Amino acid sequence: MSKKTVERWIADENLIPHARNRQDAALALKVDEEMIWPRVVKERIKSGEDLELVHSYPYRSACPNQVWTDLVHAAKKDILFAGYTNYFLWTTIPRFPEIVKKKSETGCRIRFLLGDPEGAVTRNREAIEDTALAVSTRVRITLEHLERLGPLAGVETRFSSPEDAVNHVGLSVFRFDDDALVTPHLARLVGHDSPMLHLRRLGAEGLFSRFRDHAEELWERGVPLPPRG
C-alpha cells in the first residue's frame, strides 16, 4: 500500500476504502480506524428499528437450545408457535410438556398453529424437501404430543387455512410476549437448515410487529382441528 494511496483516502472524506484496506492503513499510521473514518463506525451502530434485531443465526440449528428455553420460561402472557410442524420443540426445550402445563396454570395463552398434514401444500412441500421424516409425519408427531397434554386452559391448536398454507410453510414465527424467533424457509431446505432472526419489540412499527401481525393474521384465519375418530 503506497503512501500516496493512503493520503488520497484521508484527503477525500467521501472515499471509504474496503475494510481490509482501512485496517492496513490504520496499522501503518498507528492510529485507530475510528480516528480516520468515523462515519464508518457510526454506520455500524444500529439505530431505530434495527435495534430490534437481537441476534441472527445462519441456521435455526445454530441457535442454542438455551435461547428457546429462556424465552419460553420468560413469557408471561402470550406464546405463539407458528411453525408449520413445530415438532422440534419437544426435543429442543427440556421438559417442554411440563412447562406448557405450568404456563397454562398461570394464565399464559399458548397457541400452536400447524400445517394441515393432509393438505395439498404439505404434499407439495414433502416432494420439495424429499426427506425421510416427511412434513406430514412431523406435524402428526406434534399432534400426538399435544394430545398427550390433554385439554389445558389457554392452550389452543389450529391448522392454517388452505388459502394461507403456502404463506405459512415458507415462514415460521415463534412469539414469546415481546420476543420472536423468525425463520424464512429457503428453497428446498428444512427448517433447521434455514436462517433465523431473534427480534425484540421496541416500538409499533418495527420488524417484530411486522412478523407478529403476519402470524396473527394466519392464526385468525386458521381452522379448528377435525375431531379424532
Model description:
The chain is an alpha+beta fold. Helices cover 43% and strands 17% of the residues. The chain is built from eleven helices and eight strands. It has an eight-stranded mixed β-sheet with strand order 1-7-6-5-2-3-4-8, sandwiched between helices. The model has no long low-confidence stretch (mean pLDDT 87).
Structural class: alpha+beta
Instruction: State which percent range the strand residues make up.
Output: 15-25%
What kind of sheet is the major sheet? 8 strands, mixed
- β-strand number: 8
What is the share of helical residues? 40-55%
Shape: elongated
Largest sheet, spatial ordering of strands:
1-7-6-5-2-3-4-8
Rg for CA atoms: 23 Å
Helical region count?
11
Unreliable runs, pLDDT <50, ≥5 residues?
Answer: none
How far apart are the termini?
A: 76 Å
- Give the topology string: H per helix, E per strand: HHHHEHEHHEHHEHEEEHE
| Mean pLDDT value | 87
